[in-house]
Amino acid sequence: MKLDPATIECLKAKIAVYREFLKNWLEPANLAQLRPKLEFQTGVLAGFALIASVLLGVTNCSTEGTIQRRLDEDLKKSLAEVVPAALYDNDMLQDTMTVASAEYNIGTDETTVYIAKKAGRVSAVCFKFTAPDGYSGAINMIMGIDRDGNILGVRVLSHKETPGLGDKIEVAKSDWILNFAGRSLDNLAPAKWAVKKDGGEFDQFAGATITPRKSVQAIYRGLQLFKAHQSQLINLEN
Amino acid sequence: MFLSETYRKIAADGIWHNNIVFGQNLALCPLLAVTGTATNGLGMGLATLVVIVASNGLISVARHLIPNEIRIPIFVLLIAALVTLVDILMNAWAHELYKVLGLFIALIVTNCALLGRAEAFASKQPVREALWDGLMMGLGFLIVLVALGAAREITASGTLFANASVLLGESFKFLEVTVIPNYKGFLLMALPPGGFIMTAFLIVGKRLIDQKIEQIKQRKASVTVLAPVIAEEES
């Protein structure tokens, strides 16, 4: 669209008028007169709220995709920690199945299971789960299990346990969590899925028994969830 | 001196005399929550610095528009929006940093010092002074956070700036020092009570220094008063 010079001149003049008006209106002396007025106050508050919401809305929309990509990268990294790279050649984030998990008390009513496949055959599965009853809140974990039900690895994703005592469940702080690799419901009796203090197989920490106890119990429940869906999961085809 | 009297006074107030923690005893919630290590303190300090400068600037720009009766809701609205903005942008563009600091960013909203600066300074002063005040107040807070974090980290686990490379990048690996090798650890200092105790020690330290300065000043003053008298007597 092309505007003739006369229209442009006319528009320029109009803009100049508006600018003049705005400049006068924004003079501190003028604003000082307006400020005590109720309708001005309402307008200002509404204006600030509008600007804030528009700004936040635009930022949120424009960064949503980036944030999702970052979260996917994080998840991929966690998945790679509990499932050895040799076991899969698919994109686990795309190969998922949702199973009902309400009765296993692992934090959510539905659990997304990531399926690891090698040449189209299911080799392992991996899912996030939670010990909702940690010493100071939920302990979020991720676990990889091979198709026969042996644990490939468990890692703690986030927790609020006491620094220096309960945080030994993190792989960065101690090797405790590595003891679960290779265990399964078949090679360890149910009574042994407990800390040593309770007659089980796993160490507790000096000064922190509840954290490892609840972690072991949650891992055990996670394994039960896998067992309940094992035949269904390992027979998934492409 | 490249700074005028006003600016120097604002700087001295922000960093020392009227320091957010030592002078105003504000912002104790984020202070105690994050200063388990020097690195966390540094991260929180930087995030707060950005937000306080921005909020001071914005509020100073809009100070003639804001009616006295509804200033608090507007300040809160602006600060909350800024913090959320920083939170979202960091999550998207500085994700590694966000994973370390994510929990603390939202805590900045609870930092009453921001509202305090908006109310006491930014809403009454020109933009440049307000920005400078935000910068100096933020800097003062940053220094306290790092000092407290360092003191607690050393007493709690014998290290200094652990994980600094996660926050600042690999090139800052040299900051990570083990101050006391084979340290058994002193758990109390890593927990919130340790934060309170260490804050108390730091405040005592600041008071002692202030007292010393005051004494020196008085002595100097008495010397300058007496000097002519002594000179006269001697002659």
Automatic annotation (TrEMBL), chain A:
The keyword Mitochondrion does not apply. Its main location: membrane. Its cofactor is FMN. It is an enzyme of class 7 (translocase). InterPro entries: FMN-bd (IPR007329), Ion_transpt_RnfG/RsxG (IPR010209). Residues 134-226 form the FMN-binding domain. Transmembrane segments: none annotated. It is a single-pass membrane protein. It is found in: Cell inner membrane. Pfam families: FMN_bind. Its EC number is 7.-.-.-. Keywords: Cell inner membrane, Cell membrane, Electron transport, Flavoprotein, FMN, Membrane, Phosphoprotein, Translocase, Transmembrane, Transmembrane helix, Transport. Coiled coil: none annotated. SMART domains: FMN_bind. Belongs to the RnfG family. Part of a membrane-bound complex that couples electron transfer with translocation of ions across the membrane. The complex is composed of six subunits: RnfA, RnfB, RnfC, RnfD, RnfE and RnfG. This is Ion-translocating oxidoreductase complex subunit G. It comes from Candidatus Methylobacter oryzae. The gene is rsxG.
From TrEMBL, chain B:
InterPro entries: NqrDE/RnfAE, RnfE. It is found in: Cell inner membrane; Endomembrane system. Keywords: Cell inner membrane, Cell membrane, Electron transport, Membrane, Translocase, Transmembrane, Transmembrane helix, Transport. It is a multi-pass membrane protein. It is an enzyme of class 7 (translocase). The chain crosses the membrane at residues 41-62, 74-94, 100-118, 130-151, 186-209. Its EC number is 7.-.-.-. Its main location: membrane. The keyword Membrane applies. The keyword Transferase does not apply. Belongs to the NqrDE/RnfAE family. Part of a membrane-bound complex that couples electron transfer with translocation of ions across the membrane. The complex is composed of six subunits: RnfA, RnfB, RnfC, RnfD, RnfE and RnfG. PANTHER family: ELECTRON TRANSPORT COMPLEX PROTEIN RNFE (PTHR30586), ION-TRANSLOCATING OXIDOREDUCTASE COMPLEX SUBUNIT E (PTHR30586:SF0). This is Ion-translocating oxidoreductase complex subunit E.
